[in-house]
Model the fold of this input.
Amino acid sequence: MTQPHDVKHTAVLGAGTIGASWTAWFLARGLSVAVWDPRPEAEDYVRRYIADVWSDMSQIGMVAGASPDNWRFCATPEEAVAGAQFVQENAPERLPIKRELYARLDDVLGKDAIFASSTSGLMMSDLQVGMKSAARFAVGHPFNPPHLIPLVEVVGGKDTAPETVQWCLSFYNHIGKKAIWIRKEAAGHLANRLQAALWREAISAVVTGLASVEDVDTAISAGPGLRWAAMGPHMTFHLGGGEGGITHMLDQFKPAFEAWWATMTTPEFTEDTCRQIIDGVMAEAKGRSIAELTKERDAVLLPLLKIVAERHR
Ligand SMILES: NC(=O)c1ccc[n+]([C@@H]2O[C@H](COP(=O)([O-])OP(=O)(O)OC[C@H]3O[C@@H](n4cnc5c(N)ncnc54)[C@H](O)[C@@H]3O)[C@@H](O)[C@H]2O)c1
Done:
């Protein structure tokens, strides 16, 4: 098996939002990329995407003398995976579509190649079932956009070899990502479950009249969200306990958290709930376009990512 740090050639299958972004990242990290997507406009899309994001990746210090041209668009997925040591699949989030694609590739995938799916919600055990090369398939779930956000969640399915999971963790870390091992298959893996838990309470806060959409957002972006870029919720609370750390934090706040959890409910996405959220977000956006908001977000995110990347170097 090719060692993770010896990988030179990758393939990207499905080049929409996530596939184009992975392509840019692999290129920035000096890897060649063979791209396939059934959409005829995809080749142009990927070309424009790479040109658009290259300077952002340079700004965070992640383009190490690499060429943005070291990729080619292939006519078939078979052609794309031929010679690839690592494949990142980003086809639409539909089990039959991904399974059909995998079945097509089972006989042509390189004997040593590792195959990772970006799937946000499907289980690898369902995707890989019946495949000869199932042991070399795993989930490698990125956070949008993969060319900026470091996190990748690696999850094995029932037929994934443990070495494949370890290989993926090493590979993603080697190319500058922050990979974590999710030890069991679960709907939404881990990070999306954490986001879902927070959004559940954020929506409840709006529908129960606790705060406006804008104030809920400020409660995170001007509050705990700032600390979460430095360290996660457990370590943040270790500091919250002062000199006594997490032990003191638990002693002091256990009853409070249990009482707060007892008051929390799960909202339903009724028409009225959706309307309140949409109206609240539009009011908060104050006419700024998605492109303008993205720029505002990236003005904070890019310097932050540079600091995070330097810390992990
Ligand atoms: N969008 C996100 O925030 C996000 C984040 C993490 C992971 N993901 C996962 O990434 C995958 C792709 O999502 P996306 O948001 O990029 O979707 P997308 O709709 O932007 O892109 C999907 C691409 O797949 C192509 N495609 C269609 N049929 C195909 C086939 N049979 N084989 C290969 N490609 C095919 C489409 O032409 C399109 O370009 C999904 O599994 C999704 O769960 C998405």
